[in-house]
Amino acid sequence: MAPLSIKARSILFLFLVLFSQDVLSSSSSSAVEKTPTAYDILSDYNFPMGILPKGVLGYDLDPATGQFAAFFNATCSFSLEGSYQLRYRPTIRGHISKGRLAGLQGVSVKLLFMWVDIVEVSRSGDVLDFSVGIAGAGFPVDNFEESPQCGCGLKCGDRKQVINLRTNPFVSSS
């Protein structure tokens, strides 16, 4: 085999450089693909992101069974203006399906003077129904467009946003 001319070596070198850049960019673009967040997963199941407070560190989801867990670095508590006090344990668990969170563990609401576990959330059109087992209440989905922040809810920092959680005027027995 005859040695390659300088021009042929230059073309070959240029080809190898361009080829390696294509290979590197295609492999790096697949490595850069964004892993969905817990908030993205909620959206996939027809829930607004605001049912989870800011600060989820990670989550586990088994798409085959719907079993999930979401993780915070500590217990997260906050009040919603003129409404409820909520508490999320460092790990919350349950079963998620389209428009339904069932078997919830780790989320509670203060009713009068005691904390009660929220055991189910279901979506019916533009209403989210929250169940504590023996009773429940419905709220418009648009109340949950923004995620509350641990410690201060939706009224944080300079924003001083005041949101009264609108509710349906009923509490139903399950």
Low-confidence stretches: 7-29, 158-174
Q: What is the overall shape?
A: globular
CATH fold category name of the largest domain: at5g01610, DUF538 DOMAIN
What is the SS-derived class? Answer: alpha+beta
Figure out the total of helices: 2
CATH class of the largest domain: Mainly Beta
Number of domains: 2
Could you tell me the number of beta strands?
10
Distance between the termini: 85 Å
Measured by DSSP, the beta-strand proportion falls in 25-35%
Please state the second-level CATH architecture of the largest domain: Roll
Helix content: 10-25%
Main sheet?
10 strands, antiparallel
Mean model confidence by pLDDT: 79
How would you spell out the order of helices and strands? HHEEEEEEEEEE
C-alpha Rg (nearest Å): 25 Å
InterPro entries: At5g01610-like, DUF538
Signal peptide: 1-25
Keywords: Signal
What does this structure look like?
The structure is a single chain. This protein has 2 helices and 10 strands, in the order ααββββββββββ. It has helices at residues 6-32, 38-44; strands spanning 58-61, 67-71, 76-79, 85-97, 100-111, 114-117, 120-124, 127-131, 135-140, 172-173. Strands 1, 2, 3, 4, 5, 6, 7, 8, 9 and 10 form a 10-stranded antiparallel β-sheet that branches. A hairpin with a 5-residue loop joins strand 1 (58-61) and strand 2 (67-71). Residues 7-29 and 158-174 have low confidence and may be disordered.
